[in-house]
């Protein structure tokens, strides 16, 4: 299994509020996750780190890993809310969370927010997750198109997140074949690069490290206006 994660604070942000985890579990299983924190000074990164810390404590037993993933999201949500309620400096903080359990050819995912999970297969990418944003709802309703949505002034408004009033986890299972590629990324990547560019980079590079590094380099080239994180796994 070839897996590589990388993050960059971008060209305009003072610090990086993204977090990620790549964790080996039992029986050659892997846990991968990206969290994109938000909520003002010294808060978003705290929320994202809480999610990563909870995932780092998650049971590694393959018999319970899939259920434990959703439970970890719920635990992180409770911790973020409790922290914000007890520390005014972190009031309003939250984080996106997109995570997978990779068990050979089976991928189990949990998702809240607008970080994304992609599956690259036979030269094409499929977006597995749905963005929990106001702009995505406008796209679904035909009010704006995909191209407009990437630069829409309201694109950062989340309708669900870990730490938000509304919290609902999207879950699912799908399967990958040898040499398929999985990409987990924050919106600092997808707000700069459209799916066509992402697809090209995944198709032109041979290893996970090159794919992740080139994705981030292109996001910086196209503006780098946000923190950007990418985890690439080649089945």
Describe the structure.
The protein has 235 residues and is an alpha+beta fold. The protein has one domain: PPM-type phosphatase domain (Phosphatase 2c, domain 1), CATH 3.60.40.10. 31% of the residues lie in helices and 29% in strands. The chain has seven helices and eleven strands. Strands 2, 3, 4, 5, 6 and 9 form a six-stranded antiparallel beta sheet that branches. Strand 7 and strand 8 form a beta hairpin. The longest helix is centred in the first third of the chain and has 22 residues. It is globular and about 50 Å long. The termini are close together. The model has no long low-confidence stretch (mean pLDDT 91).
Quick description:
The protein has 235 residues and is an alpha+beta fold.
- Fraction of helical residues: 25-40%
Give the overall form.
globular
Structural class call reads alpha+beta
Q: Per CATH, which architecture?
A: 4-Layer Sandwich
CATH superfamily: PPM-type phosphatase domain
The Cα radius of gyration reads 17 Å
Q: Output the CATH topology.
A: Phosphatase 2c, domain 1
- The tally of beta strands, per DSSP, is 11
């Amino acid at each position: 299994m070839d897996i590589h994660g990388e993050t960059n604070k971008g060209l305009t942000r003072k610090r990086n509020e993204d977090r990620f985890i790549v964790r080996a579990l039992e029986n050659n299983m892997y846990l991968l996750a990206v969290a994109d924190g938000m909520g003002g000074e010294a808060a978003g990164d705290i929320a994202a780190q809480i999610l990563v810390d909870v995932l780092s404590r998650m049971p590694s037993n393959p018999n319970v890993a899939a259920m434990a993933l959703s439970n970890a999201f719920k635990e992180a949500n409770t911790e973020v809310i409790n922290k914000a309620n007890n520390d005014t400096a972190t009031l309003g903080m939250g984080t996106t969370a997109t995570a997978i359990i990779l068990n050979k050819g089976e991928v189990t995912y949990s998702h809240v927010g607008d970080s994304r999970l992609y599956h690259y297969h036979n030269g094409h990418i499929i977006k597995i997750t749905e963005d929990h944003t106001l702009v995505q709802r406008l796209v679904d309703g035909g009010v704006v198109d995909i191209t407009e949505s990437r630069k829409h002034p309201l694109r950062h408004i989340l309708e669900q997140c870990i730490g938000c009033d509304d919290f609902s986890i999207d879950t699912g299972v799908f399967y990958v074949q040898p040499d398929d590629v999985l990409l987990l990324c924050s919106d600092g990547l997808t707000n700069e690069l459209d799916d066509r560019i992402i697809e090209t980079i995944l198709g032109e590079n041979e290893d996970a490290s090159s794919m992740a590094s080139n994705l981030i380099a292109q996001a910086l080239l196209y503006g780098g206006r946000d923190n950007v994180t990418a985890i690439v796994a080649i089945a």
